Amino acid sequence: MDLTDTHCHIHEIEGNHSQTHQKWQSDGIKRTAASVIAAANEVGVKRLVVIGTSLADSKHAVTFAQSHPGVWASIGIHPHEAEAHDYPEIEQQFRDLAQQEKVVAIGECGLDYFYTHSPKQAQVRLLTMQMQIASDHDLPISFHVREAFDDFWPIFDGFAHTRGVLHSFTDTQHHMEQAIERGLYIGVNGIATFTSDTAQLAMYQAVPNDRLLLETDAPYLTPKPFRGKMCEPKHVLLVAEFLAGLRTQSLMDIAQSTTANAKRLFGLNNP
Ligand SMILES: [Zn+2]
User: Fold this and answer.
1) Which of 32, 68, 84, 99 has the greatest CB tally within 10 Å of its CB?
2) Ligand 1 centre from 32 Cα, in Å?
3) Residue 84: beta bridge partners?
């Protein structure tokens, strides 16, 4: 078995004092990044991409990836963080980070109009900046887009040859198909295992094999049957098993195609 978690935040186990770090501490179980990676490897989750959500968090993700085999980093600023930034200063630091070893993507970045923690204009500006960096450095993007596709597509279409994934995709089949037409991948996590939305389940069935990616978003979005417990990258296996059942494919088939897709998009070839 060879599975890949294309979106997790395990660097925050040993991180600073972000919300995600606090979440990792919240169940009182003592974890180290090494033990979480070992538990993932044991069930066949051999590759992980850790995702930065701010400049400081992205720097941390890069250092973390560089010191762990089988771990790569994506650098970005989450749309929730959009307001509080001095862009030219941040941009140069991201451009420097983008050239570092084991940086395989930009993001997570995008638009979140569900929470709208930051003004839309600031989100658009920050997304555009990160898409420009990805384009200049020929890196794929891990996109976070929530209730914002009407604004997202025109921005996306303004950049030729953008590669990437719509992470934690839970939207309509229509938007999934628009993403596929644009060459994007669809990232599926534990939400699939506990949603009761039949249209959403039908959408997951319709994602082409060569565009499906697995992720956990750990420590968030724990799949069934472990709801209420902490999510870890090892749980990508549960997402794979669920999708195998839903799509009437073998688990091996799902593992093979999703890992091949992750390697193709992010270039996760060296250990
Ligand atoms: Zn995330």
Assistant:
1) 68
2) 19
3) none
- In a domain? residue 64: yes
CB 5 within 8 A of CB 46: no
Q: Provide the CATH number for the domain around residue 95.
A: 3.20.20.140
| Gap from CA of 108 to ligand 1 centroid (Å) | 7
Per-residue pLDDT at 97: 97
pLDDT digits (tens, 9 = 90+) for 202-243: 999 999 999 999 999 999 999 999 999 999 999 999 999 999
Residue 224 lies in a domain: yes
Distance 29 CA to ligand 1 centre (A): 21
Q: How many domains does the chain divide into? A: 1
Are the beta carbons of 5 and 228 closer than 8 angstroms?
no
How far apart are the CA of 10 and the centre of ligand 1, in A? 10
Domain of 225 in residue numbering reads as 3-266
Q: What is the pLDDT of residue 12?
A: 95
Residues of the chain short of pLDDT 70, as ranges, are: 84, 270-271
